[in-house]
Amino acid sequence: MNDEQLQTVEQVRQFIEGSEAVEFRGVTAKEKYNWIEEVLIRFSYHRIKRAEKGVIRRYIQKVTGYSRSQVSRLIAEYKRTGRLRRTRYRRHCFPRKYTPSEVGLLARTDELHEWLSGPATKKVMEREYEVYGHAEFGNISRMSVAHLYNLRRSNIYRGMSRRFTKTKPVVSKIGERAKPEPKGQPGHIRIDTVHQGDLNGQKGVYHINAVDEIAQWEIVSSVERISEAYLVPVLEIMLAKFPFIIRGFHSDNGSEFVNHIVARLLNKLLVRFTRSRPRHPDDNGLVETKNGSVIRKNLGYAYIPQTCAELLNEYHRDYLNPYINFHRPCFFPVSVIDHKGKIRKTYPYKMVRTPYERLKSLPQAESYLCPGVTFEKLETIANQMSDNQFAERMVKARSNLFEQILRFANRVA
Fold first, then answer.
1. Which of 37, 186, 394, 413 is the most buried (most CB within 10 A)?
2. Is the pLDDT assigned to residue 354 strictly greater than 70?
């Protein structure tokens, strides 16, 4: 700002009364201080009268935008020192009690002893000073245990000590990470859980789906929860419902199946327990497809209360499971070698069969059956009704089931 034409206090008063507000823009605080100092010198602030001093103060306030108290402080600073200079801000710092070299002694001690606890590390440094006479440990050996942990978190310590711990995978000895190899024999089942929705924070019922890999014989059951107390009794009943001897049990890595209780149950039945391998999503692909094509297609995605598990199990036992195994045709793959020598799976129409027909067509099929189960008994079940007749009966039963579930949900609500 060029205000050299203002040489008297009266000119300054007229400027204040006749001008709009003026302020410094784009200038530093240092330049403002220099201008205030120049104004005080030009108007001989120490020699003028009190009223004239008030005019100069208002002039400085108007131009700089500083408050009255701040202008008073700057003028007092000028009176005391004869100049105006910005005071450099100095942050208060507590004195450093432990030098970087002493922190280095702590880091070296930790590395040599592989990071002992705080009290043990403090005792080591005390012994270095008191027992072995190493004077450099004199100061840091008197440090408190709490401050020792503070130093371990400091940037100085971390710059001296690099400690890396590799992620350790959780190794579970329950089950074998392997793909099942049924070798054309029934009795190797794939199992998975299906959750039937949530509503207002309430979990729905869970379905357990077990499918044989060769015959695609399928058993569905429902449980209120997937904890061991609910799951294991239903699982034991499901394994007993298969008409052939169970030799293999394959699941994903969920804790509902990979636990010691299920492992003991399978060991008692002399069943090999395998689970899916990392980066092999198709290990349990068969049961995943059945989750959608059977359970979701028949029961949908809507919320079903957990307390309806018993109603669902009656429906599964009397309608859904017999329909799947005796009246619902499935595709069965046939492996062929193409012109490039690669093995490809095809699904010819002649291989479209029900799980019961597939089981009966296997070589030496009777040798796989459980004691007390014969094809004559299974044939009687299969021929009681035609496929359409049983499907019609099942649809009616399903409608009644959902009506009961709806009435129960409304009564609870």
1. 186
2. yes
